[in-house]
């Protein structure tokens, strides 16, 4: 069993667990050769296999890791290395401060249709690049989507078999024993986006229940129904899916996906007509007037606040909250100017008479030493010249 401080491959030091996927624990590690922080995961290998089968499983894991390292896309996790260590195979990846999409949904609730569509564009574009490289993702689901702290999106476990896909996001033909394929990835993306807006998978946690009609998908419902078709031959391609999702988000850029750790808007004191501005931020704000915080993305609210926000959004049929008239927002009072304090003059350092005398004596000694050196060099040169002249006279 791996533990903190373990050195893998004589190079990578495991520092602490930072997550757990279907194929095992993800570790925060340190590359002692290149001096950088990385993320490492021990790839899933079946236990109890005969030696020949175990060696084949390790070879297949190595090939899957090498294939994932070929993918270069802003929304695909970068694989640095894949290396064997004893009976294990480790995957070395870039470290992205983030949280899994499944964790985010359980903590902050569902996304709006426009947010889910914007997320689907990023994931679909990465998946199209993966398919163009001849690779099938196999395990696309909320657990393999990372929502980065800086607002980015990263897709992990690209082409990694691992412990197998979650049943709720597995295409029907794969469940029946068919091989993974690009149309199967389209189905998995549709089930993932369905879960993002509805909060539950479309066919239940086991993937075999009757399809649940979408209730909150809104403009996204049509695209989801095409992606979730049971017949893979009539599903749209990943490129067609991206184009459809882009058509949904046209003119709705302000409602794009909000990162899970977006900074909250600062609290500002509000002054209302007929009230003293000294009341400060503890004043009660009338519920009929939107606050500045309601007009911009902020820190995700609690689940009950999310429910209220969704009700307000559904009531605003004319547009999102970002389009409310600006004149309805009261102006905040100007902050008081800080008191200007006159600067005191900086005291100058004045050496004492003894220090001045010592410094002058040192200068005189250095000058005398330079003079002695010059006189010595001049005397040597004169002696050399006299010697040369005497030698010429003697030889003449």
Would you kindly provide a written description of the structure presented here, covering whatever features stand out?
Among the domains are: about 1-95, Phosphorylase Kinase, domain 1 (2-Layer Sandwich), CATH 3.30.200.20; about 95-260, Orthogonal Bundle (Transferase(Phosphotransferase), domain 1). It contains nine helices and nine strands. It has helices at about 50-70, 100-110, 115-130, 170-175, 180-200, 220-225, 240-250, 305-315, 355-395; strands at about 5-10, 10-20, 25-30, 35-40, 80-85, 90-95, 100, 145-150, 155. The strands form two sheets. Strands 1-2-3-4-6-5 form a six-stranded antiparallel beta sheet, covered by helices on one side. A three-stranded antiparallel beta sheet has the order 7-8-9. The longest helix has about 45 residues, at about 355-395. The model is unreliable at about 260-310 and about 310-330 (pLDDT under 50). Its EC number is 2.7.11.1.
Keywords:
single chain; 396 residues; alpha+beta; Phosphorylase Kinase, domain 1; Transferase(Phosphotransferase), domain 1; three-stranded antiparallel sheet; 9 helices; 9 strands; 13% strand; Prot_kinase_dom; non-specific serine/threonine protein kinase; Protein_kinase_ATP_BS; ATP binding
């Amino acid at each position: 069993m791996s533990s903190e401080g373990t050195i893998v491959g004589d190079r990578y030091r495991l520092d602490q667990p930072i997550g757990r996927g279907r194929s095992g624990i993800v570790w925060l590690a340190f590359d002692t050769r290149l001096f950088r922080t990385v993320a490492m995961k021990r790839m899933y290998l079946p236990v109890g296999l005969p030696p020949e089968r175990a060696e084949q499983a390790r070879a297949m894991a190595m090939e899957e890791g090498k294939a994932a390292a070929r993918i270069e896309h802003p929304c695909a996790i970068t694989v640095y290395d894949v290396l064997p260590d004893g009976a294990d195979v480790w995957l070395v990846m870039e470290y992205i401060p983030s949280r899994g999409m499944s964790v985010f949904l359980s903590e902050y609730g569902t996304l709006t249709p426009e947010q889910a569509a914007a997320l689907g564009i990023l994931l679909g574009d990465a998946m199209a690049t993966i398919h163009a490289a001849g690779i099938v993702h196999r395990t696309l689901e909320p657990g393999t989507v990372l929502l980065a702290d800086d607002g980015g999106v990263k897709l992990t476990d690209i082409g990694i078999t691992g412990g197998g896909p979650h049943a709720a996001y597995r295409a029907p033909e794969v469940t029946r024993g068919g091989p993974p394929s690009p149309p199967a990835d389209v189905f998995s993306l549709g089930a993932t986006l369905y879960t993002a807006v509805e909060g539950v998978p479309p066919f239940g946690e086991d993937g075999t229940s009757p399809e649940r009609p979408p209730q909150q998908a809104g403009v996204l419902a049509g695209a989801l129904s095409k992606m979730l078709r049971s017949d893979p031959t009539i599903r749209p391609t990943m490129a067609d899916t991206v184009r459809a999702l882009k058509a949904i988000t046209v003119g709705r850029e302000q409602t794009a996906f909000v990162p899970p750790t977006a900074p909250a808007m600062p609290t500002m004191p509000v002054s209302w007509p007929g009230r003293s501005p000294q009341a400060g931020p503890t004043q009660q704000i009338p519920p009929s007037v939107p606050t500045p915080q309601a007009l911009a993305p902020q820190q995700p609210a609690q689940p009950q606040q999310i429910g209220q926000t969704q009700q307000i959004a559904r009531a605003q049929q004319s547009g999102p909250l970002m389009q409310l008239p600006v004149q309805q927002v009261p102006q905040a009072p100007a902050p008081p100017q800080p008191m200007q304090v006159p600067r005191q003059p900086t005291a100058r350092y004045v050496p004492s008479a003894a220090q001045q005398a010592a410094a002058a004596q040192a200068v005189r000694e250095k000058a005398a030493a330079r003079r002695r050196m010059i006189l010595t060099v001049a005397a040597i040169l004169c002696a050399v010249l006299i010697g040369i002249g005497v030698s010429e006279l003697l030889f003449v």
